Amino acid sequence: MEIRPLQMLTLRARRSYVGAMFQIMGRALQAMTEIDGEACRETRQLPPGFLFEMRVLPSGPVMVVEH
Question: Distance from CA of residue 37 to its chain's centroid?
Fold first, then answer.
C-alpha cells in the first residue's frame, strides 16, 4: 500500500498536533497542582513513584506524569 504525499502530510500534522496537546496538558497539570489547593491535596494521595502515561500507538507521541 502506497502512502500518498497528502496522506503523509496529514499523518505528520496529526502527530504534531497530538504532541503539542500533550505538551500543553503536561504543563497545565503541573501548574494546576502548584496553584490549586484541591488538586494538590488529591495528588498527595497518590503513591510515591506513581506514573500516568498517555501514548498514541504505534510509536506516536507520549506523555508521562510522575508523582
Answer: 23
